[in-house]
Specification:
Length: about 200
Amino acid sequence: MEKKSTNIHPIFDQLLQRSDKETQLNQKSVVLWMTGLSGSGKSTIAKGLEKQLHQAGFMTQVLDGDNIRSGINSNLGFSNEDRQENIRRIAEVAKLFLDCGIITICSFVSPTRAIRQVAADIVGSDDFLEIFINTSLEECERRDVKGLYKKARAGEIKQFTGIDAPYEAPIKPALDVVTEGQTIEASVQLVYDFLLPIIKK
């Protein structure tokens, strides 16, 4: 393994601080980490939440699985090691936005508790809000918006979460959003109402 360079001298302490950015934006920054099976509604809720927060005057940034994997993490696959590196990089990016005073909405399957703990440790537990987009495998497979479950069942996709790779639901999420029997608008409102007291200055 390549040794870390000793010629690195961070200047974090010489820069404007998070509190300065939060004051300018008139909001408190936080990282929402939305986890759930593929097709559970994470991205749809993230988009709706972003829009509602924007309309209320809040500065936000959405980090979404497919977007990230088509850009900064385009070199990663879906092995256990690559999944962990995917989440590590995302968490580091989320922390940069957090430090800029921005409300950061992360939407990733992040299938295991251990991998989500990696993200929480990087972001900091006080600023990391785990939101469980709680949708059953049966419902996600029924929706199959991207056709991925069909491919996984046919053996065309290996190590697909929920089919031949495990998903570990959060034990004590900050918020549990049960989407079945509930409109997208209602799910978005649930997250918004939970978040608002936390981000208001």
